[in-house]
Structures are given as structure tokens and as C-alpha cells.
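Session log. Operator J.P. requested a structure for one protein chain; no other inputs attached. Running the standard single-chain path with C-alpha cell output.
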Amino acid sequence: MTDIQPSRAATASGSAGTAPETAASGQGLTRQTVVVPASINMVALLGAGDEHLSLIEEALDAEIHIRGNRITLRGHPAAVALAERLLTELVAIIRTGQPVSPETVERVLSMLTSEPAESPVDVLSHNILSNRGRTIRPKTLNQKRYVDSIDKHTITFGIGPAGTGKTYLAMAKAVQALQSKQVNRIILTRPAVEAGERLGFLPGTLSEKIDPYLRPLYDALHDMLDPESIPKLLAAGTIEVAPLAYMRGRTLNDAFIILDEAQNTSPEQMKMFLTRLGFGSRIVVTGDVTQVDLPAGIRSGLRIVESILDGVDDVVFNRLTAHDVVRHRLVGKIVAAYEDFDARHSPGVVPDQDR
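Structure written below.
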């Protein structure tokens, strides 16, 4: 993958043939030196003020010493081996032209510890869409698997907490499909279910009341397309952004269709939506089953759909977790804390699909 060169030192002194270095506890330590290619900027690799270096040392409990482009690693063999692979992956990412941030270091480390057979650089360098100098890529292994599922299946579900890129990546794939002429149009839809407010009491016409619910979809479009082209595409019907109720009675051919906030659909609405599928079309359904805003007594269609469609060919369910949150790093911690709270304070609660 890269030409980082290991220079192994199996002893404390670095001289060959002596006994392995041991800690006071009697556990063996090892030392290894890797040589970073001269073409790699060491500041880009190690971070301003060695910020990345500090993250690696803290996460791996290893000593790391830098001299020029030589990095010496000292610690338990597993930690040293992981640190070497982490550095190798970071060098490979830099070579693709991507910047390395503290978040990048954390994501690569997470991938290496959870799925050591996967190559983080293959995940982080997978380009979906480029616009105005900005490239959209998956940032976690689960996101990459989600994107791959969209390519391979007619109906894909992306289920997970806020900030995991479910809708954003689906929209990037939709724009990619439109630009490559795989489809003739994009249809983006959401159920207009209020979260604590009543539509009837909001000012304006029905269209003006509904528009705020669709605003996040417009915002994502502006990240992916030239702003001046969006009104033309909307006017021509090439891109349609509409409430879910507007899908009833339609058959959608040659389209990339995204249902966002699907946790706020009833089972009947979910069935109605999925049966809109026409020839040459693809559907992506996204939602977070922990944030249902439906009135009391109405089950979420997203919560029960997997048990209904389990085993149906060409339908796939992808689950993202707090580890896949790509917003501010605190968002991931907040999501994880809520999940932990729910697990501790809801014993015996059975999900709808298991009832």
C-alpha cells in the first residue's frame, strides 16, 4: 500500500541477538522503527504541534519518538503492530491528496480495531461526488458498506442516529446517478410530521407550512449541485422535493427516490411508499427509530418493516451507530450516552418488530 519501511529492533538496546526488552511487570516489550517516505510532509502526518501523535500515543499506550522521518515505536507487540499499520494507512491517505485531521486519526484507528481486515484508505478514498472543489466520501466502514449497498440493491434502508450521514450519502448517490444518466430524475420526500409543534398553528399557506420540513433536503442539494442549476432542475421536474402524502397513487419510473425521516411513517404509509417503485428506479429509506414523532398509539412503519421484508430479495437493511457520527465529535458521545441511558432504564421493552 505504501513504502513505509520498517526497521525492526527486537531488543532494548537495538542490537540484534540480545534478549527482548521486558517491563517491570515481566511482560515483554518490543521496539520498531518505521521510515516515512521523504515525499510525505511530517506535519501533515503527525499534526500541528504533534496533535495526531498525542492521540496515537494515548489510544495505543505506546511510546513514539520522532527523529526526522524516522518514527520509533516502543510498547507491547500488539500496540506497536497497530501503531505501524495506523501510520501506514495515514501515509496512504495523504498520498490520495486528502488532509489528515484528528477525526481522521480516530476513524482510522476505530476501523483498524473493529475490522482489522478492512483497509481504512479504501473506505476514506472512495469518491462519490465532487462539486466546486469538494468531494463527498464515506468516513466510516459502515458508511462505505451503506454506499455499496445502494449500488447493489434496488431498495436500501439506512437506519441510525442523527449525524451518521444516512440522508446526505443517499442524496450524493442520487446526484451521481442523475449525472451519469442512470436515472432521469430524483425524488426526495419526507413525512410532514411535526416534532412538538402543530402545523395548523404555524403562519402561512400549506406550502409555506410544509417547506421547513423539507428544508434539510434543499440544504443538502446546495452542497452537491451548483446553486444556479437547482431552480431549473426543480422547475423541470428533474428534481422533486415533496411531502410523502404527494406520493400516493403514483408509479415512479427511472427515478432515484429517497424517503427521509422514515421513522415518522405509519405502517400504511411505508407500504404505500415502497409500492410506488417503478421500472428502472431505486429507493433509499432513511430514519432513526429512536426519534419517532408520531402521535401516541401509532406504530412507526420503519420499526416493523424489517420483520415484514426479511428475506425479500434485493432489499437490504444497513444499520449505523454512534461510531458512524460524522458531525462534531461531541455529537457521537451524546448519541452513545442516550443509547446507554435507554439500555439501562428500559429493561424488558420489546421493539415493535419483535412483538
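Operator note: The radius of gyration is 24 Å.
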